[in-house]
Amino acid sequence: MVLEIITPTFFIFWFGVGAIAASIVAYFLANTIWELITFVIVSGLLVFFTRPLVNKMTGEQPRKINLDEIIGKQVLVIETIDNKKGTGVVKINGDTWRAYSFKEEVVIEKGTHATAIKVEGAHLVVEPIVISEEEKK
User: Alpha-carbon distance 131 to 56, whole Å?
Assistant: First the structure.
C-alpha cells in the first residue's frame, strides 16, 4: 500500500488484491504452490482486464505529439545549449525537450529564443534566432 501511495498510477493495487486472494487460498489449503498460482493468476487477470476498462471509463487518451508541428516553431531556451558540454533544454508548447545547437560551435544562452530545425530521437535540434540591430531598436 505504501508503494501505491508513492507511484502515480493505480498499478500496484492489483498485486495487493492478488495477495489477499492468495492468503484466502492459504487459509483453506495451506499449499504454497496454490498460493503462488492464485497470486499470479488473480494479479495478472486484474492488470490485464481492468486497465483498458479504466482507460475507457476515464476517457483519457495518451497525448500525441505531432513532430511536424514542432519544426519551424520558436522555442524558449531554459538551459544554455552547449553541444561541447552536452547541456541544453528548451520549452515548446508546454513541453521540455533536451536540445542541441544546429551548429556545433554555437552556444545558445538561457532565456533566449531559438527555432526548432529537426527532431533527432528524443532531442530537438535548434538554431538561434538572429535579431538585427535595427530590430533591437
Answer: 49
Least confident segment among 46-50, 84-88, 113-117: 46-50
Whether the pLDDT of residue 8 is over 70: the answer is: no
Q: What are the DSSP calls for 46-115, one per residue?
A: HHHHHHHHHHHHH---PPP--HHHHTT-EEEEEEEEETTTTEEEEEETTEEEEEEESSTT--B-TT-EEE
Confidence of residue 31 (pLDDT cuts 50, 70, 90): confident
Alpha-carbon torsion angle 37, 42, 47, 53, nearest 10: 150
The pLDDT score that the predictor gives to residue 136 is 58
| Cα distance between residue 63 and residue 133, in whole Å | 41
**CA gap 2, 22 in Å, rounded:** 20
Q: Is the entire prediction scored with pTM above 0.70?
A: no
Bridge-based pairing state of the strands 95-101 and 74-82: unpaired
- Give the position of cell 504452490: 33
